[in-house]
Automatic annotation (TrEMBL):
Subunit structure: Homodimer.
Family: Belongs to the NMT1/THI5 family.
Keywords carried by this UniProt record: Iron, Metal-binding, Pyridoxal phosphate, Signal, Thiamine biosynthesis, Transferase
Pathway(s) it belongs to: Cofactor biosynthesis; thiamine diphosphate biosynthesis
Recorded superkingdom: Bacteria
Catalytic activity as recorded in UniProt: N(6)-(pyridoxal phosphate)-L-lysyl-[4-amino-5-hydroxymethyl-2-methylpyrimidine phosphate synthase] + L-histidyl-[4-amino-5-hydroxymethyl-2-methylpyrimidine phosphate synthase] + 2 Fe(3+) + 4 H2O = L-lysyl-[4-amino-5-hydroxymethyl-2-methylpyrimidine phosphate synthase] + (2S)-2-amino-5-hydroxy-4-oxopentanoyl-[4-amino-5-hydroxymethyl-2-methylpyrimidine phosphate synthase] + 4-amino-2-methyl-5-(phosphooxymethyl)pyrimidine + 3-oxopropanoate + 2 Fe(2+) + 2 H(+)
Signal peptide (UniProt feature, chain positions): 1-20
Entry protein name: Thiamine pyrimidine synthase
Domain (SsuA/THI5-like): residue spans on this chain: 33-245
Gene source species: Tropicimonas omnivorans
Amino acid sequence: MKTTAPILAAALALPLTAHAQQEVSLALDWTLNTNHVGFIVAEENGYYDEAGLEVDILPYSDSSSTALLAAGVSDFAYMSSLSFISTRAAEADIVALWVTMQKETGRLVYSGDNDDIDSPADLSGKTYAGFGTKWEDALISTMIEADGGDPTFDTVTLGTGAYEALANGSVDFTLEVSTWEGVNSELLNRNQKSFTYADYGIPEQQNGYIGTTGRFLAENPDLVASFMTATQRGYAWAAENPEEAADILIDAGDFPNPELVTGSMELIASGGYIEAEGMEIGEIDEAKVARMASFLAESGVLTGADGETLEEIGDISGWFDQSWMDE
């Protein structure tokens, strides 16, 4: 009995976080890839554990991460720019806390062997392999018009099959993420060329938002701050240690080609996607979001809460909350 009391007293003195971690859930916008590396690094390096958190990354499904968040299925979500802006424009109760990529990762690609294409105007009358969204039509039409062409083209919806179709000559052009499909094309030695969106009338944008609901933020401000601070540490470490971060991600996922993960992380780090001069890691540029939201509205892509097409975007200041960065 003489030895039991001190042990019991010591146990009772331990902080509660040593006994129980607070659980939070996270929905991803796609299957695990380098966009999500900060979460995996934060888990592996113990940043979430230090913050008293147990993070449950939900299995990717056909339901968009933004829809899962808005429905209260997840506490946090990783969202594409289009998904976030579209859902928020429809007045869903979601709030962006962070953005991963400080500059556009998307681009329009075509075969380098196609001598009929030198500029976006040459895409008129060609066949596009797409993914089934209004955004694509607005994007491509704007680029062709900005180059003086007629925005008329054929579309076949192929999803991720678009890249193989482009490689075998079944289609003339498609869209890709330079930090993933672009890296994969290089590894496969595919002769491809590309056009940058912002060179042809499309607003430059950030991408890869992490968000929560306004209600969850209001009820759990300290929890949100803890999760986001640990996540920021994960992405910062990954940007500084791309090779090690790639290894951590490879161990966590199921990647048929680990070289793709490594190559993608190298490009993200060297290309200044996560770390940008004059911007804190994860910092949202409200002006960029406003310009893209206005472009989408003017292009007829967005709908309001009533399901009617929005013609303009009002004040978007309530779309974001980065107060956790000040804590």
